[in-house]
Amino acid sequence: MGVILRGGIIVTAVDYYKADIRMEGEKVIAIGEGIALPEDHILDVEGCFLLPGGVDVHTHFDLPVGNTVTADDFSSGTQGAIIGGTTTVVDYATQFKGQTLKEALMAWHAKARGKNYTDYGFHMAISDWNDDIAEEICWLSKSAGVTSIKLYMAYKNVLQVNDDILFKAFTKGKQHGVLVCVHCENGDMIYNLVNQYRSQGNVTPYYHSLSRPIIAEEEAVTRVIAIAQAAQSQVYIVHLSSNLALQVVMKAKAKGNKVYAETCPQYLLLDESYYNHSFESTKYVISPPLRQKENQDFLWRGLSNRILDVVATDHCSFNFNGQKDAGLQDFSMIPNGIPGVENRLSLLYTYGVVPGKISMNTFVNVTATQPAKIFGLFPRKGTIAPGSDADIVVWDTNHTFVIRAETQYQRVDYTPYEGLQQKGKARHVFLRGRQVVHHGKLCDVNPHGIYLPRQGIR
Amino acid sequence: MGVILRGGIIVTAVDYYKADIRMEGEKVIAIGEGIALPEDHILDVEGCFLLPGGVDVHTHFDLPVGNTVTADDFSSGTQGAIIGGTTTVVDYATQFKGQTLKEALMAWHAKARGKNYTDYGFHMAISDWNDDIAEEICWLSKSAGVTSIKLYMAYKNVLQVNDDILFKAFTKGKQHGVLVCVHCENGDMIYNLVNQYRSQGNVTPYYHSLSRPIIAEEEAVTRVIAIAQAAQSQVYIVHLSSNLALQVVMKAKAKGNKVYAETCPQYLLLDESYYNHSFESTKYVISPPLRQKENQDFLWRGLSNRILDVVATDHCSFNFNGQKDAGLQDFSMIPNGIPGVENRLSLLYTYGVVPGKISMNTFVNVTATQPAKIFGLFPRKGTIAPGSDADIVVWDTNHTFVIRAETQYQRVDYTPYEGLQQKGKARHVFLRGRQVVHHGKLCDVNPHGIYLPRQGIR
Amino acid sequence: MGVILRGGIIVTAVDYYKADIRMEGEKVIAIGEGIALPEDHILDVEGCFLLPGGVDVHTHFDLPVGNTVTADDFSSGTQGAIIGGTTTVVDYATQFKGQTLKEALMAWHAKARGKNYTDYGFHMAISDWNDDIAEEICWLSKSAGVTSIKLYMAYKNVLQVNDDILFKAFTKGKQHGVLVCVHCENGDMIYNLVNQYRSQGNVTPYYHSLSRPIIAEEEAVTRVIAIAQAAQSQVYIVHLSSNLALQVVMKAKAKGNKVYAETCPQYLLLDESYYNHSFESTKYVISPPLRQKENQDFLWRGLSNRILDVVATDHCSFNFNGQKDAGLQDFSMIPNGIPGVENRLSLLYTYGVVPGKISMNTFVNVTATQPAKIFGLFPRKGTIAPGSDADIVVWDTNHTFVIRAETQYQRVDYTPYEGLQQKGKARHVFLRGRQVVHHGKLCDVNPHGIYLPRQGIR
Amino acid sequence: MGVILRGGIIVTAVDYYKADIRMEGEKVIAIGEGIALPEDHILDVEGCFLLPGGVDVHTHFDLPVGNTVTADDFSSGTQGAIIGGTTTVVDYATQFKGQTLKEALMAWHAKARGKNYTDYGFHMAISDWNDDIAEEICWLSKSAGVTSIKLYMAYKNVLQVNDDILFKAFTKGKQHGVLVCVHCENGDMIYNLVNQYRSQGNVTPYYHSLSRPIIAEEEAVTRVIAIAQAAQSQVYIVHLSSNLALQVVMKAKAKGNKVYAETCPQYLLLDESYYNHSFESTKYVISPPLRQKENQDFLWRGLSNRILDVVATDHCSFNFNGQKDAGLQDFSMIPNGIPGVENRLSLLYTYGVVPGKISMNTFVNVTATQPAKIFGLFPRKGTIAPGSDADIVVWDTNHTFVIRAETQYQRVDYTPYEGLQQKGKARHVFLRGRQVVHHGKLCDVNPHGIYLPRQGIR
Q1: Which chain B residues contact residue C171 at CB under 8 A?
Q2: In the structure, what pLDDT confidence band is assigned to residue A329 with cuts at 50, 70 and 90?
Q3: Angstrom distance (rounded) from CA C92 to CA B134
Q4: What are the sequence ranges of the domains in chain C?
Q5: Is the pLDDT of residue D278 over 90?
Q6: How far, in Å, CA of A10 to CA of C49, rounded?
Q7: Is C37 within 8 Å of chain D by CB?
């Protein structure tokens, strides 16, 4: 017995057409007319868009940071995700100093196992590179299904790596089909600016922003592309935030460098003026910081022109009370990060598709198709086609609602998008053929997400 | 009764998956598993790619030029097209001095009617703009299904228009949903250079190339984008040939200008060294001319990065004997143009996909999907999806052959691609559900192509 | 008997040192210590800068425009100039429709003869190019001492020339050592925008600015550089007003194109907000129009970096009452132009040197040295060196004053710089060894300026 | 009693005129006509150019490198310099690991004292930065007359510093009027490439070039400008070698960054093809390496357009026999550097001025005026003006000669310019009023050079 979705408009990264979808088991079986079998269950989705389930390739669930831990774990985080129309997350497993990659990965599997409402994969964020770690890259890709790693050019004395390690990582990555993701900000520059501001007594959250100027991002993006080029490797830039960094990516792509770039809803929608809300400014402390508003149009255009490949959330939630507010007297003590895994699709639809900044095809492309392609999940994830997983979002464009911390599934005491009116919501969500969201509510209390080993990157 | 294509790999601009296609009547009805009805005819296409029929949006069939006429008419031209896997052409109907657009269009309908082996639409190339013509633009779009016009910045005293007319055309185009296509070379610059070379006795075809330097193209592309911006309109640049012009397009797209750009196989594959083949150089005389080889990599990359949107042929064939050779003693007397409508897909596959310069998805995107989208034919044409026309190419990647003038369907006595070994060929071609090519040969001697009124452009 | 200037600091485009200057007859004879002869007159200039007399290469005196004529003639104009420290002007003689260049030049000699308080040369602005005119270029350069011409890309149906004429002018210019100066705005674009605004009833001076957007300048600058390149010629861009146009010049220079660019005090100091002063906005109507304030920093930097070569005034004065105000009801009827020949040096000193935007060397370079070099007057003009004309400005940096229409020498009823506090003024001015300004006042009522035939340009 | 130079043409960075020069004591006293006193000695220099003595701000004399030392010490090095028309050198005193800056400087004074045929100053190259060293910067500038330091972004594990140190150095430099000079190549990138090539057995000098690709320079130039911007400091880039790096400098200058850039004769004249001369390739091993020939035109243009400020030599000589040849079996063992302090002026004149790539003014500007201005020696050095040191080169444009190792004053067994025909030579050279070169030969066997404490940088 299968399920027929009838009357919706299927949207992929390129197509837009009205047709029935037939799911059976975990897969999409057929699309078109006259495909229903007698026993099939028919669900009327007239007037809705049928989208491939969203793929959010940048989350941090259950992540220890300093002496605290993120507010969301895999359970609450993936509940938020699925309610918002995201059916797959790729979370950053993180190696801490002294750990092997295997130890780190096992720890992350332990955190995640049995808790996921979406399917999930892992990247591996590396904070302690050495020759032994380099040797584990092969295992990571070939045996563990983790085909991407992350390195940080910022966070001096904590996570930051130098160019030597970047070069070696690119070389290893290329050898074993592993994509190297990089946090691009010049950590030495930031370290000095932070110290300058603090020594001058400038400690409000506003100085968080000043201590991480765009030039720190532009420089790091330029550098990492250069190193990847010298190592004849590709590179994926996480959370690009500014027009100047975007221009660097654009020129690199035009030159033939193999560069992918991701941005996040916060950089598309929020701006540095939020750091003036003195009391609540800590809520918006992220790295890179929010930028001047004029950057936003360039980022939207970058999505539209495919200079930017992916919109992910960098969901990394801390409660305002008891976590974020620890840094009210010193911006350098604020845990960096904001929630958002729940809001990605509705934000992009409301502020991108509705005003015409991006097309429906681009909307699907950057939230599902490209992330799945880049990270070795396509065509299982990221499209609606026979043979793909039946991860389908029935998107109701007439459903308006307001984002509120008090009603969110994410387990964090605020949202940076508080009060924003949304147009468009996931009415139903299917995860590998099973309906998990029904009329905007979680309809199955059990987590059915499975681990996704990912294909190596060419 | 329908037809089932079984065992092939469906490729669209974004997807790549194995599934059956069911066609009935003129349409694709369903895709997937278990969609065959008992009475359906099943065609085994195991191991082949199933591509949306190619859309060539730049042809000149049966075009009078000076006191001669192109070698191919709509019959031979579209036979070449369909054999090569192109199921739709959009030909440039041309208004001559003194004609109304309606007269020009009727003349083109008369040339084309009953002769087409592919479906076809028309652009309108305008050589005599005035206030009355401006008024006809509305009719053209709303009543005649012609939603694109072309203007020339080159060919001084013949087709060239000034910036005033360009501005007015953009304004009218915007008003009536008509896309303005522009031949971008600075005609005044070329006019003076041609005269300089001729006055110096430099008359071999080589000087055709020197008299049309890249700066003439780069300048015109820059200018037309500026005028479109001032008129708040979009613009489509035909046959872009050089890296410098490409850079202009890239920067304009990044700035948010609405610019589309097309290149052609000749610019991707041939170079200015062909003008040194003294006797045969006239065969390669086109405008813009072939460029230095180093431009080609940038153009391929432009396709891959979506800076270039379309590959069309600018098919405009003249026989070497009796037409091209008229200019052996004076390059300015050579009728400009080359054939190629038959070779577009195999050339792009062989030199783009096989060596990895472009992906299969990009191959489909630039030869079918984007041209259909830009010119108001999507989703009827340009994709394989339920509801779309069943224009399907069964692409056999194991079929190798050599391009030869003597075996081509195009009715012209040479080919610029003579002797090139091709990997990949259209084994079968379906036009709106009807098989018209069978094992690489035309299997239906009757022309079944129909006229396609096109949707207005937003 | 000579004159010794003692105690000042000599500033040239590169040097800065304290030394005596000895003038005798019309020339600087010696510089240094121990150069005074017993009978010499010694003038104490302790604490002042000694600058080469300013060279303003863009003025329009006694110019008929429509059915009016500029407020300043050569007498009042050059009185303003010399008071302000400018000892040489190069005025735009203008050929009107139907005139030969010789007729036009004779007319300008007649206007100027016997009236000049500064030395003077002529450019030739050409409004009616044809083959006969082209033939006169040789005479102009070789016999008449006019080694620069100007063409307009704007003012459709009045002064505007097309690219064909530009190409031919560059070719002729190169042949005869004549530099082609160009007013760079796309006239066709502007013509259509003006008509659009007027047809919408948008007729206030503010729409003057909207109808001449930066893209019109950027486009024209790009184009004229391209045409000059194709013609293998150099080009001089008058009154560059915007950062985007500046970027074009910068890239062209880096590529090796031979391009010179001039800006004016009005673009460095005033901005488009002046078009909001409803009643008085007409006072600021010039072409190109005033731009957004953010352009100014780029222009200052362009001077500092030598991307911009010259600051000239484009002095073209019309009274507000009876001339400018004619366009209060229709911006297109306002005669374009503002006064300023009197204020160039003090404005640049006050707003450039004092706040450190440009050095003293750059100040001299762009107001005297480069204009003299580019236009064939160096080393006679533009520097302080033995053998050069003794055109010397004793610049008193402690003299502050306020610009007022009522106290100016220019014969026009307003000044766009009304009320601006100036720091620095010409205390004394010597023209070819003769003192003509004494303590800021004209001390010789007779005009002693002579005509300067200029050397051909290489 | 003074000396009169009569009949020459004085050339400065901006002027070009015929006049007498009167020197007395160590200074230029007067310039012009009628300045000779009865007892003055008159030297006829008819037909020669009178140039300010050259200033070479990049030499390495008596420098220990690995377990060898450069072939030239201060005696032979400055003999070469003065014969070639250079009257001032600024040598890189070098701090070795463990030394204080004071110790390093004293060591350099000891090497130099009493041996110099030119005047000399010191930069301080720092290889061991720490907080104590940072504190010495103030002393260096205020008490020791050393107002520039150098840091290296290359030479991993030897001289290379990270971005943290660069930031701190810029901050200190800004505070104390010290200009930070930087060797811009990404050392980590190079380190990995060197290891890759060596591990593959690719050890010929050719791989020296491949292991230091242009991207390593372009990246480092971009980065150092970014860091200087964040630290609100200026920066001086030594030995820029490639067009891509030049473009970075150009854009930074246009943006308003305070960046100076130096190139060297070797990058203007030699190219990577020299690494194919298998046996002799080691002679050309320098860092950055010689580049593809196409870079040279851009560098020449950069001088002409003032994007490049200085031509210095980076003179660092090693004998081929016994020093350079040590690396015949492993390029990484070759001591990097070439001689050239003797040849700078004749090379630039012959290959720059004679073919018209740069003007005489630019020739003087980049070899004397700008280096003196940037490094705090102007107007004492770098120009010919009353009050300046009488360092004057009588340049004989009719003197042709051939560069030969066997006839050079430099004490090294080869020259990279062997056999090059030179047009133009220093006939006489005056150092602070004393003639030290007479008809191309050293005419005073005693070294008269003095140490030049330099002014702080603003």
Answers
A1: 192
A2: confident
A3: 40
A4: 53-374
A5: no
A6: 77
A7: yes
